[in-house]
Amino acid sequence: MLAELVVEPMREDLLLWRCLHGGPLNRRNIEAPAPNPEVDWSWARARNVPLLVKLTRTYGACAILARDGSDIVGTLRFYPKAVCSFGDSGAGFCLQQRSPSGPADDMPAREFPTPEALGEKTLFVHCLMIAAPIDDPDRYRRRGLATRLARELVRWATVQGWSSIEVNAYEELPMLYAISGVAGRRFWERLGFRLIRQDTEPAISGDLLETLRLDAVAAGLRPENAANRYRMRLDLSDR
Q1: Of 70-79, 154-163, 176-185, which range is least confident?
Q2: Which position among 107, 143, 218, 234 has the lowest Cβ density within 10 Å, counted as fewest Cβ atoms?
């Protein structure tokens, strides 16, 4: 039952230093990733663990996790917007990629501003991911787990004194969920987020764009919006 799942901020006793692309993670299998020619796992762990420890100790948390027993089956990663803008890091915080798509190698050694020193107390949602066992791929699909993760972030951020949360969103297309790791615009609107900026995602072009346009037509969406990128924002000051 989804009601039995625990949704809570990530703690140092189980740092999710890699993503849920291969399915749920736990204390045992997180340290035994399958070989991947695109990722040097020893390098990723060496960079990510100290970075996540520093973020957690400085800001209290940097992810919301959904746990089914001992398995982590959902994650919502977030970071202070000011930290996402550090130097050459841009907004690229993918833990399985090198800079500029991921954090710079020296990020753990950099000096992070304290919460009190931040000029803008805004959190930026990097990704939202749900993972199910290979033998039961629909276990958590369309059961409200992503909504629970997002609501826990809003609750936690409000208690911690953050002023707002921002996220990039796209059209409600399954392929975009898989590529971007974030939910669609309507998902965030249902949670009270409002549109503050719209532009075009530069990574969506060529054959990918044509495929997404066809998917949009099949889903009853406007194909000309397939490459749209929406910046959504939730103000927490009145909560």
Answers
A1: 176-185
A2: 218
